[in-house]
Amino acid sequence: MSLPAGDPRPDEEIERVLVVVAHPDDLDFGSAGTIAGWTGAGIEVSYCLLTDGQAGGFEPDRDRAEMPAVRRSEQTTAAGHVGVRDLHFLGYVDGELAPTHELVRDIVRVIRKVRPQRLVTSSPERNWARLPASHPDHLAAGEATTRAFFPAAGNPFAFPELIAEGLEAWTVGELWLVAHPENNHYVDITEHFDAKVKAILSHVSQHPDPDNLPDRVRAWNAQNAGAAGLPEGHLAEAFAVVRLG
After folding, report:
1. Cα–Cα distance list, 200 to 8, 25, 65, 90, 167 (Å)
2. Per-residue pLDDT reduced to its tens digit, 79-127
3. Among 28, 37, 66, 158, which one has the highest count of C-beta atoms within 10 angstroms of its own C-beta?
4. Other residues' Cβ atoms within 10 Å of the Cβ of residue 8
5. How far is CA 8 from CA 39, 45, 245, in A?
6. Are 42 and 32 in contact (CB under 8 A)?
7. CATH class of domain segment(s) 16-243
8. What's the CA gap between 6 and 11, in Å, rounded?
9. How far apart are CA 207 and CA 57, in angstroms?
């Protein structure tokens, strides 16, 4: 079944956005250009990183015990390039993420703290055309976040322990999925592409060939722009947007 046309609320009606991903750098590849546009328009954007990316990197001799701190620092630097200051690190283990009751609860906790009108995450559906984007941790992050989006975050009877923490139910109106098999919404990021590249390159521990990375990312975003029908030379990020109600 095809998705309906993406119909997000105008950005002028959005005050807060929460982005939930499995690993540091996931959101920078998928949506940093869009995020830079949002923060530039005065929208508050928060990040929720589910794992510390302990299994990432390319340096075989590096002490793996250092990686959580390294990757948190890199993500914090990357966030600054696109105007984000509020980061939540949940500390789950890279490569072991699963959409458990506990993970859904922890995402709901952040949703109720941030109280966003828009939620961005990885698609919970495997994209066979872009299998690396459908890393098992990405699928788990997408599934857990989708469960948090509906119905858990807005259900006052879900996770009563959060009510006891003073975190009242909060309904998020929009879910934006990255790397979904089918997209229905594109954001022109041409003027924010340089900020996106700076954010991606902040993840120094992850890039053995940083000099060629900007051209590769540009090619991906140019392909999206073509699919969106934008003029030649424009760049875009792609999403599947779902609205409640």
Report:
1. 26, 7, 23, 21, 33
2. 999 999 999 999 999 999 999 999 999 999 999 999 999 999 999 999 9
3. 28
4. 20
5. 17, 16, 12
6. no
7. alpha beta
8. 14
9. 7
Are the beta carbons of 78 and 25 closer than 8 angstroms? yes
> 64-99: buried (b, 16+ CB within 10 Å) or exposed (e) per residue?
eeebbebbbebbbebbebbbbeebbbbebebeebeb
Place of tokens 């961005």: 120
Burial annotation 11-46 (CB, 10 A radius, 16+ → b, else e):
eeebebbbbbbbbbbbbbbbbbbbbbbbbeeebbbb
pLDDT digits (tens, 9 = 90+) for 150-205: 999 999 999 999 999 999 999 999 999 999 999 999 999 999 999 999 999 999 99
In sequence order, which residues have a C-beta less than 8 Å from that of residue 242 and are 6 or more positions away?
3, 174, 175, 176, 177
Closest CA relative to residue 180, chosen from 48, 5, 38, 30: 30
Report d(CA 245, CA 132) in Å as an integer: 32
Matching residue, tokens 């029908």: 229
